[in-house]
Amino acid sequence: HMQILGKLLFAVFSQARSLDAIAPPFAREDSASGTSSNGSENSASASSTNTASVHRHRIGPRVRATESTTVSKLVDMKAFPVFICRFLADMIDTDRGDEAESPFSSFQDVIEDLELMMARPHIFLQDLDILHQQRRGHSLFGQVHCGREEEALSIISIADQMQQSLVGGDVPVGVEAVFITGAAGSGKSRLARAVIGTLEGLGWISIKAKFDQRRAHASGGIISSMFDQAVSYVVNMRESKDPASVAYSEQVCKSVLAKCGAFNVRRLTGWLPSLLLLFPDIGTDEDTGMLGKDQLIYPLSSILQAILEPGRFMVICCDDLQFSDQASTSLLGEVLINLGGTEEISHRCMFLGLFRDNEVDDDHPFAIQYAYLQMSTNINTAEIKISGLSREAIADMIMQVFKLPRRVVVGLADVVLKKTTGLTIFVIEFLHSLLRDSIIVYSRKKYCYTWELDRIEFIPTSENVTEMILSNLKHISSESKRVLQILSCFGTQTDMPLLQELENYQGGIISSLKEFADMGILDRAGPIVIFSHDMILQSIYESCELHERLMMHYGIGMHLGKAASSSSQLFFSGNQITSPLISLACDQINFASEYITDEAEKIMFAEWNRLSGEKLLHACDFSAAQYYFACGISFLADDGKNWQTDRELSMGLYQGAVAAAFALGKGDAVTRYVGMVLWHVPFKECLDIQASFIKSLALSDKHEECISQGIILLGKLGFDIPPTPSETDIFGEIVSTASLASEYSTDDIKSLCQEADAETIAIVNIADAVFVSAYATESPILPLVACSIIRHSLKKGICAEAAIFFTAIAGIKVRLQQDLPGAKYWAEVSREIIKSSPNKNKDSELRTELILGLSIDIFFQPLNPSNLFNCYRAAMAVGKIDTALMSLNNAVRYQLLGGYNLALLSKTYEDRLKFTAKHGKYIAKHMALDIVLLSELTGKSTHWSSVIRRCGISSLDDLKNDNETSKDARWCHRFHLYQMMISFFRKDYLDAEDELVTALGFLISKLPQFMSIYQAFYGGLVTLQVYRQLGDNNRSRLEQAKDSIKNLENWAENSMPAFGNKLLLLQAEYSASIGDHVNAPQQYLDSIIAARAHGLIHELALAQELLGNYYCSINGHEEARESLQLALMYYNQWGAVAVKERLMKHHDLCDSSEVNTVDLRLRKTKRACEVVSDLADS
Q1: What is the DSSP code string of 658-713?
Q2: What is the pTM of this model?
Q3: What are the residues whose beta carbons fall under 8 Å from the beta carbon of 836, sequence distance 6 or more?
Q4: 33: phi > 0 → left, psi -120 to 50 → alpha, else beta; which?
Q5: How far apart are CA 505 and CA 581, in angstroms?
Q6: Tens-place pLDDT, residues 131-167
């Protein structure tokens, strides 16, 4: 029946053409079976009998060159495609026994073949003979993507959901991050390429990076290259002739300038060179300084936001993340989180991260960053684990390459799977070896690839893929192998200009590229030449002996180093976007360092590394810069003689190493390098290096060491600062310095602002680091350091960096002298220094504004979080994370304590502070304390978020335990003040007084803090409540309350809006405590009016509650109920639900809004005051 069907289909396909051309084989078969060529029951029976026995999953036996086959005769008729010919022959030959080529075994196989032709005509309806001629010498496998359809579809479906946002679909907010994991060679990169190709076809922007195992120091350049691809995309849009693309590029340019500003764009041109193509007039002449990681986050995020906002989608792909360094993955993670937190574009960015999970342990830099991304609410993470290819996937791969039906290749797929365990790279290399060794061959007679399974099953297989790769390379010539080894010295990829330069070192490189690409060893992407897999790269690199490899590195390095003197061209190597030739020469020389013994050469190579480090330091690639400086130092003599013979070189290397290590936050490395410099260089010749050392101690939270080392350095410079000053010392220095400074007018101060010399700036930087640590630890030397720098500046000239020390005078005026007008004057002087200094310093400006906002401005206006939020955004824009952290923390705290709606604050609190929490336990515990107070007011259970738990804080007990062991006076002071406020709202006044007394024991700062306002206000209220509650006529509590009132009176003289209602409420409570019923009612009323006038809803509610309590104490029950009902309403408006419910329970009130107009409230309150006054008169 199969044969009859074949003849019938032949007649249909050939439009009834005669079978005479292929009749002889049929005639013999028909004669043997006693049937006619038209077929009969006997023929059908014979066919049926033979089918099961002849079916084998292999291409049939070998045929003699002169022997014709059924398929060849069908092809010679030129009536239909080769695959149709083979299809017909496989049906017609079903009863030819062992002579059959690949006969069908069932009608189901026929149906499957027909379905394949219909579903995948591009595979099965090509002329394989012509295709074979075109492929000759090419790598057949590895070019098709097979076996990952399910994984690819899952990623594409995420992208499809993201695109639904354009049509109003419900899309989760946050960057979609898909991590593809698996062992080396498992096919991660091929899956990513297939997905990216699909997304690019849908119009997505793609930017890609691949890290290099032997060039970890180049990770910063790799990330730089990746982000620069996004800028290049916009440049290409501008240069296109499509009006819509040009309009898009112009929109992006305007948005970038609006978001980043010309200053930040100019700063980024060294890191993103394509910005100069996008903004050719932006200029690079301004000294913008070095950019650290923190200074890159905000502008990078803003540029990507500008690119995505006009409806674009982007996929970011990073391959081999296991080879990345900590700084690069941290920068990448911060940018992704920033994008995820930008609601307008968060759903337009997808990240694909590829890494070998078996090479990433818990301590790996990427593992730490991966865990952090998984915890972020701005990132939606998914993981795809890639294992070996299945039998079906291997069969599909063979089927696509050989254009054969599944039934023919499935047996070969079984054998390949058994010998390779399905590892993708192993499968590909094994199949290549079968083709290379002619075990699989193309038959011109059969018009297909043929093989013998028995022979393949007995082939000995390499134990690992490396051996297989090397065996596939053993047939290439020694010259070709030498070229590949040279290319492997440069890592994963390089570019044509560099290869053209290398042609002068080793001829034949350029001419060999096509051969290597055809063999599947190399890929080409425009001018970039890439090894097709890093396992191939590693196998080639390790194919020569170590000594030979070192000599090769040395030879290449010497050639490039000599060429570098006459070339300023930039090259692409190892994924680093703009590598100068001298850096590439250093890479080769540094790999061969153990081979180099000549002293003159060592000095030359040290100088090469210094030049490379300085170029990369200027480009803000600090990891690479530190690598080159460290390598340069390693070429110097261990006995230190180079400090005498080559001092400038040695100093340059160590200065660069200190700068790079400091920018990377590597305090231990800074200490090590500085120690070596101090051993060989006079003290005053290395002040800038010592300043970096002191600052690194402060940034590493080594505050005590920073203070002690800083005082020693300042002492050597003539500053007499006692390490343990007495109160007399401090007060005397403060008075004398303030007196000296008062002799200078504002104009005098402005005239002293000048361009500071290097020594002055170094001195101020050393003192600034000490100032930071002294402020953090509440050290008593803080005012002494400030006074010393003020005196020095008034004598030698004032630089912008010194402005922060003049803020200390303003703080002293408030704290020690209660001179608020004087404080305001010196605050303005500090601001004038920033404005008048020729050497503008954004960091000094922001820190000055922050300190003035926290310690001075609060005494002249109500708490204003908007100013601090502005400071936060400005600090983020220039990458000053420490300033941004303090600004954001205090801005949100101002909202919490300043009467902002607590329900809204609860929703945004964690989002606003999650940025700060990840920077360490210190910030997290302050955030946790705010959440405790917020929860106490709202009644919502404390939400110990993942970011807090990661810092070891999971309950209030953890905070209490930390407080008991902490030496941080500021933290302890604030902890107990918050506990006092919590106890106050719980009406546990005795406990509140205990917490107040404890808090006062930690108050040692000589600078004012905004918490001192709440200490005076709530502390006074607590003291008076205890006095009335105990009724023991303890006059000391009244005196304490008077002190609080006195502070508020002094502050209120300068700002009634900020302090008037607090002062009046405290005075009312004092009057009520001493039985002054004449003044108390009016003071309560005035406090209520003042709080309402300035929108202080929380203190309005408190004033109404305390007034109600006062009425209760004099039996004015109706008036008390009205005031308490108003208090309930205001507490409810504030969002303090727990306080409201506690008040309802305490006074047996109902939740009513019966009093709801201002006039009625005032009228009833005023009437109540008159009643009380009448009672007092009688």
Answers
A1: HHHHHHTT-HHHHHHHHHHHHHHS-GGGGHHHHHHHHHHHHHTT-HHHHHHHHHHH
A2: 0.66
A3: 749, 750, 753
A4: alpha
A5: 14
A6: 555 455 455 676 556 667 888 999 999 999 888 866 6
